[in-house]
Design a protein that fits this description.
The chain is an alpha/beta fold. It has 2 domains: 3-95 and 308-312, SRP54, nucleotide-binding domain (Four Helix Bundle (Hemerythrin (Met), subunit A)); 101-296, 3-Layer(aba) Sandwich (Rossmann fold). Helices cover 51% and strands 13% of the residues. An 8-stranded mixed sheet has the order 3-2-4-1-5-6-7-8, sandwiched between helices. Helix 7 (149-160) links the parallel strand 2 and strand 3.
């Protein structure tokens, strides 16, 4: 394994340590505490997964498949079905081959999420990574309601070395998007990253604003590849799932950025969100540095979660 891949895995493993301690120690106690596979074994396993924020639907799917596999393979010992459990969790998390097409096409990426989840920071990190791949990136500071949002994004634009289009505090966000889209066209930009307001408590206005922004993009740049990413704070667990549902009513979500995975024992929420909403987790944040926003990879995630060291060699 290359050094880059190894450091990615070790950072991910470190970032998931709290979640691992929460879920895996419980799973290990089930596998070690039962001498046979019976109804009590399944119930205990189910409880551990749900308590680990993997979610009711995902857990039921994982356990149901495990039951079938145990029967088909005539497995008697609990330890012998652990690999199946790990594989079933991976299958719940597969992102799909087309998830990152927007990185290679002329794209407009709307980034939405409530205030405080790390939305602006995630845009800055994403901009830095895309610039590092040789893409021409432009930012739009359309969160004109939150004090200092524009200044924060401008600082990130300097750090990432990309241009930014902004409006005055309180300006119409749709007008900022209009200016940014036309600037992206005239400058032949590869990816336009748009920060948007995160006032979920004022949901009706937020929905209308997102619809207006979408109409402008459709009219001004109909050929652009569209991506709507919602940023969620993993530390909020089931609340993150609820936020994703509500934002899904306002915009057609194409992916999720899950932040603060390094600070939570609730990292299992990544499985719950993807299973329940059928929206792929595309990036996860496991630290403050630009490289700590990582593309989501189901195998790496679950291997790191279960501390499957043999995959890291």
């Amino acid at each position: 394994m290359s050094e880059e891949k190894k450091s990615f895995f070790s950072r991910l493993k470190e970032g998931l340590s709290k979640t691992r301690n929460n879920i895996v120690s419980g799973i290990d106690s089930v596998f070690n505490g039962f001498s046979k596979i019976d109804e009590d074994f399944y119930e205990e396993l189910e409880e551990i997964l749900i308590m680990g924020d993997i979610g009711v639907k995902a857990t039921q799917d994982i356990i149901e498949k495990l039951r079938t596999q145990v029967k088909e393979n005539h497995i008697k010992e609990p330890e012998a079905c652990k690999e199946f459990l790990i594989q079933n969790i991976k299958e719940q998390m597969q992102v799909g081959e087309t998830a990152y097409d927007f990185e290679h096409e002329q794209s407009i990426v709307l980034v939405i999420g409530v205030n405080g989840v790390g939305k602006t920071t995630s845009i800055g990190k994403l901009a830095g990574q895309l610039k590092g791949q040789g893409r021409k990136v432009l930012m739009a500071a359309a969160d004109t309601f939150r004090a200092a949002a524009g200044e924060q994004l401008t600082e990130w634009s300097r750090r990432a070395g990309v241009d930014i289009i902004g409006g005055k505090e309180g300006a119409d966000p749709a007008s900022v998007i209009f200016d940014a889209v036309n600037a992206a066209k005239s400058r032949n930009v590869d990816v336009l990253l748009c920060d948007t307001a995160g006032r979920l408590h004022n949901k009706k206005n937020l929905m209308e604003e997102l619809k207006k922004i979408n109409r402008i993009i459709d009219k001004e740049f109909p050929d652009a590849h569209r991506e709507n990413l919602v940023v969620l704070d993993a530390t909020t667990g089931q609340n993150a799932l609820q936020q994703a549902k509500e934002f899904g009513e306002a915009a057609q979500l194409t992916g999720i950025i899950l932040t603060k995975m390094d600070g939570t024992a609730k990292g299992g929420i990544a499985v719950a969100i993807q299973s329940e909403l059928k929206i792929p987790v595309k990036y996860i944040g496991v630290g403050e540095k630009i490289e700590d926003l990582q593309k989501f990879d189901a195998d790496s995630f679950v291997n790191a979660l279960f501390d499957v060291d043999k995959y890291a060699e």
